[in-house]
Amino acid sequence: MADRESDGLPGPRAEPRQPAPAPLNLSLLRTFLAVHRTGSYTAAAPLLGLSQPTVTTQIRSLEHHLGRQLFEREPRGVTATPYADELAEQVAGPIDALAAVAERTPLREGVPAPPVHLAGPADFLGSCALRVLAPLVADGVRLRVTTGLSEDLLEGLRAGRHDLVISARRPRGRALTAVPLADEEFVLVASPEWAERIGPDRVAAEGPAALCGVPLVTYAEDLPIARRYWRHVFGRRLTAQAALTMPDLRGVLSAVSAGAGVTVLPGYLCRAELASGALVPLLTPEDPPINTAYLVERPGTADNPHVALVRDHLLREARTW
Asked: Does the chain have fewer CB atoms within 10 Å around its N or its C terminus?
């Protein structure tokens, strides 16, 4: 039988071959993940070792490659689109795993690991965290400790200035990961002299009216801990003004123990003074207010093995606080 060519019949036409899509540059995904976690091109840049214009260019290249918008500009930073949220969920695990392998620097014998930058409230670090971390320091772990307010310290963590932050509040968004570290129970206390002047069981009977005229010692001018105690225990708003403010609860403890007035303190901080009688609890509510402290870090960025060592040790020892 003659073939089609010899019969003069046209043969089947070959379909034009589509060009293969260009491979996606993994560095663009790494930049995307940093922007998604920090919520800002500017904040992501130092974490990546890039300039802000370079970050912007890489995000635009990724958007062009995917044919989708990833972020919407806001007055402060950017907001991820739903597509970007889905993409981040898909790539975060693999990118973090690759980064951990690529960025890990083997520790050579005789060369110390970099210091671990730990941040948190001064009173909590001084009374709890540093006490339990002392054995690690004795074994060669180096610590660099920064104190301050939770909001400022969390911003420093996002910017790469800290490795771990102990925070009095859980951070929002996906840029940081937080796990509960410890619960602190608040106690209304005074010196024995003030407790005698106020009268036994009077606060339980009369509520905050029993404290009228008693100086209030607090952490800050807006009375953050005391306001919460008043609202939770007494069911009313605290309207008093502070007689003394000290932005370190250890100073508040010292002043009240010396007879300055009354205050609200976390139980871990004044446990010894309550046991010795240097401070007296003015009320023992059935449902005292409790605040949770969180241990916070940036995911996928710690190539220093001592960071994990400090983190795990804090979480383990926190059960004893």
From this structure: N
